[in-house]
Amino acid sequence: MESATTVAMPSIDEPGLSARDVAERQADGHGNAMKTSSSRSIKDIIRANVFTLFNGIILGAMLLVLLTGSWKDAVFGFVIIVNTGIGIVTELRSKRTLDKLSILVASDYLVHRDGGDVEVSHDAIVLDDLLWIRSGEQVPADGTIIETWGLELDESMLTGESRTVRKKAGDEVYSGSTAVSGMALIRVTAVGEHSYAAKITAEAKVFKKTTSDLNKGINTILKVMTFVVVPLCVLLIWSQMRTVGGWSQAIATGQWRQAVVSAVAGVVGMIPEGLVLLTSLNFAVAAMRLARKNTLVQELESVETLARVDCLNLDKTGTITDGGIALNQVTMLAGANGIAEHDVKQALFDLSNEEQPNGTGKAVLEGLGREGFSGGAVDARVPFSSARKWSAIVSDTGVWFMGAPEVIISALNGAYDHVLDMVNRNANEGNRVLLIAHQSIGAAPDFEENPRLDPAAEPVALVLCSERIRSDAESTLAWFREQGVRCRIISGDNPVTVGAIARKVRLTGEREPVYMDARELPDDIDELADVLQNVDVLGRVLPNQKKAVVQALHRDDHVVAMTGDGVNDALALKEADLGIAMGNAAPATKAIAQVVLVDSKFSHLPDVVARGRQVMANMERVASLFLVKTVYSALISLGVVLTQIPFPYLPRHITYLGGLTIGVPAFILALAPNTRRYIPGFLGRVVRFALPGGIAVALSILLSTWILPGAMGWDITGNPADLAKLRAVNAIILFVLGILVLARVAQPLTGWRGLMVLAFAAAGALGMFIPFIRRFFALIVPGGSMLVAVLIALAIAAVIFFICVGTARMLARRGKAGIAAGK
Question: Strand runs (DSSP E) across 249-320, as ranges?
């Protein structure tokens, strides 16, 4: 709403909009208000996580078992609650972050309406308003400058350019930039969702789910199993009804319940439910570990993406440099007429010691302060102005000038081309160069009435400053080079300056980095991809170009990570496979990044990547372990359907044995140290590992079920006690072979890995002798003839297992040899 307070400002001829004009524009939707909701509602998030293929299969199986009244065989269904809860909580956190996303800071602004100046809220600004932009304010809407009183804007959050920009009448100003000095009157040309900052915000707010190779692999398994599970479940129920005398007898005697439970045992075994849960938990644990190192992971799946990154695009300011300026050195010029270096440095300190020094001035004061300099007596001063580009003082050692070399030299008498050559050489090395000129005291200059450069002054020294490079930048970049990750610096600053900084931090090691002005980049993505292969540094990059660079790298199937801290980085971070924001970044940038380095330390990135590799490498082991169960469950179910036998074990057997040989060991293995680089082909390797083990287990169980009843005289179709014995024997076979699979996955079995396998083997055997566990999981301790049958069955199973695994290894070696020969 408008404020009644009138503020005294420079007088202008135009009356501005009337109250009626403002009302009409508000009614037409030309106000500055913006929608703040993200693209996914809470309802959408809950629906997406609850109604998944995995949940549907497990829930359906659980309900079937509960209908039979055998609740003990339905405990596998609790994994739905845990896994769904993790997914919903994670995405709700992302939604809250996205909803808070705003590039513009809401505050009150001064507009000229009905011939007077009034303060209005951010949302009350309308199209065509005459808007005052004052020092310290953020521009709330796009506009064209009508008149300016020395307005300078910091557009770094939009463009990446670290220098302030002086504006003149007719120039465009964009929402999101900040006035650092002066003021201006602008006519608003774009408001609300049509403004520059709002367009970036809208693109950044689009929900994007992080792609996970692990989840893609698991979903692929689930999709395949869907085509297998549904018909197989029907066939299993049909076959189990036949084993108890057909549908009529099964329903009449109540044996249909046992038939359904048996069928579900096959279905549940085929679904790697623990793998889905463990993947989410492992991501969460990795995120918590990274949080202890001041690294915030905002999307759990991004932990895995870290392992796959092979291209890292770095923003210069805030990543390689810390945003501050450092004084490098003061270089005395030849022909300084005997002026002492100490006097020059004292004058430099006094020149910089203004009431509100800029960044360069602060760097000079800090650097010379460490050398013991402090403020001296100053008789007169001309403060630095970006319009003049110089400052001056009068002291007892003379009149001193400091500022842009080309500006000062152009005002002096004499030829100083050699000085400009030195300036250019130093600038090309990434330095910000200032020139100090001196004039002996004659008549004291009248700086108050006529602040001007005296042509009689002479250059005496160059002041070399540069952006302060992070102490950890060089070592961090070296680590990435060793790990095969290609790093590029992409900045809005001058490419020569950025190239010099890249050289200082050894971005490309011993090789000279190749830099390029982004204004010369092709617009075509394919052409851009070809250019980028030979470019290490890009300067003068616009926000849309940063996004295009990521798209070009994607064309060549690179996995791209992007760091940044400004709004100009937001679109590129969103486009990248992994967006990494610094802790001091703009709120909009942090909101859309998957990873935030809270303390803004670039050196955390190796830890982040290493944690991602640990997750990916360990989850491959874990997935192999779970998929063995999927393979043998599918094959056993198929064998049961084809041969019309009772199902060889119960769902609760799978719960008990899976927990000891897969579930808990998998969690331990998932958290173990592992620095192996990411290798593409995750799903293929997992399947090749799982097939021999799964086939061996299936053959062993089916042979036991086909042969053992005849050998032992058990009537497994007519006598429930005999069927219980057979299932107990098969549970033992499953357990022993499960331990062998675990031992294969956990290799090498030295140290804690071997002890872990032995511990779970002992725990499984011990559980059979604990009455409560034995009754709950329908286990039987074998004795007498049953013990003999178990030992024979185990011996046969072990032989089958080692034959299958040995054959698989031999085929793998032949395959590798064939590939090597083909090369």
Answer: 295-297, 311-314
137 and 120 share one domain: yes
Does some domain include residue 40? no
Q: Would residue 52 count as lying in a domain?
A: no
Residue 60 pLDDT exceeds 70: yes
Assign 3-state DSSP to the chain and report helix, strand, coil percentages, each to 5. Answer: 55, 15, 30
Residue 411 lies in a domain: yes
Q: How confident is the model at residue 274 (pLDDT cuts 50, 70, 90)?
A: low
Domain that holds residue 673: 213-286+615-822
Indicate if 427 and 490 belong to the same structural domain.
no
Provide the pLDDT for residue 475: 92
Mean pLDDT value of segment 540-566: 88
pLDDT surpasses 90 at 700: yes
Residue 62 included in any domain: no
Distance CA 107, CA 434 (A): 38
The residue with tokens 């698991």 is: 218
Strand 578-582 versus strand 560-564 pairing type: parallel
CATH number at residue 181: 2.70.150.10
Q: List the catalytic residue out of 315, 350, 493, 569.
A: 315
Of the listed ranges 126-130, 380-384, 524-528, 531-535, the one predicted with least confidence: 380-384
Q: Which residues pair with 131 in a beta bridge?
A: 111, 186
Q: Are residues 642 and 746 in the same domain?
A: yes
Q: Cα-flanking dihedrals φ and ψ of residue 694, to 5°?
A: -65, -40
Contacts of 257 (CB under 8 A, 6+ apart): 68, 69, 70
Share of the chain above pLDDT 70, in %: 83
Query: Active site includes 315?
Result: yes
